[in-house]
Specification:
This protein is of the alpha/beta class. Helix content is about 50%, strand content about 5%. The protein folds into two domains: about 300 residues, no CATH class; about 120 residues, no CATH class. The strands form three sheets. A five-stranded mixed sheet has the order 6-4-7-9-8, with no helix packed on it. Strand 8 and strand 9 form a beta hairpin. Helix 13 packs across helix 18.
């Protein structure tokens, strides 16, 4: 049982027999966020008929089994897709290839430098090395892509179980953020760190009162930071919120001290050299990332899901059904997403990641004792969204496989300018934006689809110029406008052009000769110009 440290009366809603005195509720964060509820829920009251059973509370085992089944289902998109449809995934795969094979590959040595360093962004980079030795690179990448949703879902379950010894509607709604825009974009390191942060927070709760907990969390905090700095920040916020909910004193600021070790790494300069940045049109961007907090493939469904979860959170707050042990973390992360920069520690969309994590924490803060029918109905939103993602991945993987036939027409060690056209009018993501990464894996080419910002990323390009990297391979396009590549800068000095888009370009670079053409793609040999080597 959770020990209450003050003689305050039982919180409204903490027991089914406690009457709700709504006149006593004052609308302030301190009053609206309920304190910790009893660790063990009351035993299910069983009826005799079907209707009575549906109105009964589900058993703890029933909720747990349902949650585990849903966690396994979360991997479904990766199981049906040979090529994971994460936007950044091929670029990550290319980086892994350079990292692992450059020493013994003359082409990779010619085109790339790779400077390994310990930093707060190494999750998948560390995991891919042993997996590649066992399964090969492309299978290893697919395994990691599948582990992230599975571990995130299991982390969600572990948090609610540690807080309440049951799996309820909070976990069912939180599962909707397993496949957040961050994971669909391919933030693998952040995904692994977020899953680790959830497990670590669950352990923090479970080990409450243990004298040796701080010693254990010194390496735990460092490990989460190594996976990704944003996951480490998420863990720190959850631990602070938990301690603040229980004590509301200076101790809440001191309690997370075992997680502070990575600050030493940051203070000694082991961080990207780029300064934090909000980017242009800050408020337009902030509004956009909030609207797209559940962006996947169907615009109305994504908006409806976000509005529904927002309503549930607001109503729960009004009725004091938000557990402060995670409710404070939700508030900090969601408010933090507004005030924090877009670029921090060299990463993009740092503020958007806090939205996904904050809404996930908010769902886990929901503290309703739901009847059986509601527990089984609650996963519908997750399952519908999962179905959309799975169908999108299955269709997109088939398209990726078809487009990859173009790589057969590129010579080994070629210098390639890759252009992928993304239609601005489409709500979903274009998972082909970094498809050029597969050409690095299979043909050891030089290509402009890498994340290779100096001072931020470990990979460096020796040729192509300062701008020959992401996002030079992407053209944001609106239907009806021309696609003119006659003066496209990345093609200058390269030998080959690989184009992917909804229609053929209106103009190619001068002297380009098409050697392969298929719906949505072409490969062209570029003409040598004076001064080319």
């Amino acid at each position: 049982m959770v020990e209450h440290r003050s003689p305050k009366p039982r919180a409204v809603g903490s027991s089914p027999s406690t009457p709700a005195n709504f006149s006593a509720i004052k609308l302030s964060p301190e009053k609206l966020l309920m304190p910790a509820e009893l660790t063990f829920a009351r035993s299910a009251q069983r009826g005799t008929g079907l209707g009575a059973r549906l109105l009964d509370r589900p058993t703890a085992r029933e909720g747990l089994l349902l949650g585990l089944v849903l966690a396994l289902l979360a991997c479904l998109p990766v199981l049906v897709a040979t090529y994971p449809q994460m936007v950044d995934y091929p670029a990550h795969l290319a980086r892994y290839h350079v990292m692992l094979d450059r020493t013994d590959n003359a082409f990779l040595q010619r085109f790339y430098e790779f400077e390994w360093k310990w930093s707060g962004n190494l999750g998948a980079d560390l995991l891919v090395q042993p997996l590649t030795a066992l399964f090969g690179l492309e299978v290893a990448g697919r395994i990691i892509a599948g582990l992230v949703p599975l571990l995130t879902a299991l982390g969600i379950l572990s948090v609610e179980w540690s807080l309440r010894r049951r799996i309820g509607v909070g976990s069912m709604l939180a599962l909707c953020f397993v496949w957040s825009p961050g994971l669909i974009l391919g933030f693998l390191n952040f995904g692994l760190a977020q899953a680790a942060a959830l497990f670590a927070f669950a352990a923090w709760v479970q080990l409450d009162g243990k004298a040796w907990r701080p010693v254990l969390f010194l390496p735990v905090g460092l490990a989460v930071w190594v996976l990704h700095v944003s996951g480490w920040g998420m863990l720190g916020i959850m631990v602070f919120g938990y301690e603040w909910s229980r004590r509301k004193s200076l101790w809440a600021f001191i309690a997370p001290w075992p997680l502070f070790l990575p600050f030493a790494m940051l203070l000694t300069g082991d961080h990207p050299g780029s300064l934090p940045s909000y980017g242009p049109n800050i408020w337009v961007f902030k509004w956009a990332i909030w609207k797209q907090a559940m962006r996947d493939g169907i615009k109305w469904l994504d908006y409806a899901g976000l509005i529904w979860i927002g309503i549930v959170l607001v109503v729960s707050l009004a009725f004091r059904r938000l557990d402060g042990r995670l409710g404070w973390a939700m508030a900090i992360m969601l408010i933090g997403s507004i005030v924090m920069p877009r670029h921090i520690f060299g990463g993009d969309l740092a503020d958007a990641r806090m939205i996904y994590a904050g809404l996930l924490a908010g769902c886990l803060a929901l503290s309703w004792h739901a009847p059986r029918w509601l527990l089984w109905l609650a996963p519908v939103l997750f399952l519908v969204r999962l179905g959309v993602t799975t169908e999108t991945w299955q269709r997109g993987s088939a398209e990726t496989e078809r487009l990859l036939a173009a790589i057969d027409h590129l010579p080994e060690g070629a210098r390639v300018a890759n252009l992928v056209v993304t239609n601005r009018g489409i709500w979903g993501y274009n998972a082909q934006e970094h498809i050029g990464g597969y050409a690095v894996v299979r043909k050891n080419v030089l290509i402009n689809a890498h994340f290779a910002v100096p001072g931020v990323h470990m990979i460096r390009l020796k040729e192509g110029g300062a701008g020959f990297r992401d996002p030079s391979q992407r053209l944001l396009w609106r239907a009806g406008t021309p696609i003119d590549l006659s003066n496209w800068k990345p093609a200058q000095g390269m030998d080959w052009l690989w184009y992917v888009g909804p229609r053929e370009p209106d103009a190619l670079p001068p002297g380009a000769v098409v050697v392969y053409r298929a719906p949505g793609t072409l490969v062209a040999r570029l003409a040598k110009v004076s001064g080319d080597s």
